[in-house]
Amino acid sequence: HAYHADLIQHLRESDAKYRITFIAWLKTQLNENPYVLNYILWTDKSKFTNNGVLSKQNHRYWNDKKPQWTFETNNQTVWGTNVWCGLINGKLLGPYFYDSTLNGRRYNDFLLNELPNMLDDLSLDIRANLIFQQDGAPAYNANIVRNYLNEYFPNR
Questions:
Q1: What is the pTM of this model?
Q2: Which InterPro entries match (predicted)?
Q3: If the chain, 156 residues long, is cut into consecutive pieces of 10 residues, what is the mean pLDDT of each piece?
Q4: Distance between CA atoms of residues 28 and 45, nearest Å
Q5: How far is CA 83 from CA 50, 54, 96, 113, 133, in A?
Q6: What is the three-class DSSP state of 141?
Q7: CA torsion, ordered 16, 19, 20, 21, to nearest 10 deg
Q8: Is the peptide bond prior to 95 cis by the omega test (within 30 degrees of 0)?
Q9: How many of the other CB atoms lie within 10 Å of CB of 108?
Q10: For 110-126, b where at least 16 C-beta lie within 10 A, e where not — what string?
Q11: Beta partners for 54?
C-alpha cells in the first residue's frame, strides 16, 4: 500500500459568503460583458523556504502495513523568499520576488514601482478596463493600499 499526506487549505466559516458574493458579482459582469474574464488580473503570492513544502506526490512509502514514518522539515536556520505573480488574459505578470514579510507599505511600493512596468506589456484596452483581484491578505487592506487602488482602479 502507498501512504501519503493530504494537504488542504483551511477555510473559515465566512469564506462561503464571500465566494457566493463573488459568483453573483461575476455572473452580473458576464451578462454585461461576456469577455470580462479577459480583464481580471488574478493575483497570488507564496513563500518558499528551505524547510520545503511537502509534496504528497513525491513522498510515498511502500509497505504491507502503515509505517511510523516521519518527514523532517525544520532546520535550525530558516531562510526563504516570497513571490507575487499575476495572470491576465492568458499572460503571466511577474514573478516579483521580495524578501521581507509583505505589509501595507511594501505592497504599496510594489503597486507604485513594479506593477506599472508589468502592465506596460498589456494592450491599452486591457489596461483601461483592468479589474484588480486580490485575496484578503492584511497588506492588501492597508489604508495606503486601498486609497491607491481606489484612485487608480475606481470601481474595479
A1: 0.73
A2: RNaseH_sf
A3: 62 87 96 97 85 54 66 66 92 92 92 95 94 86 92 81
A4: 28
A5: 15, 18, 5, 16, 16
A6: helix
A7: 120
A8: yes
A9: 19
A10: bbeeebeebeeebeeeb
A11: none
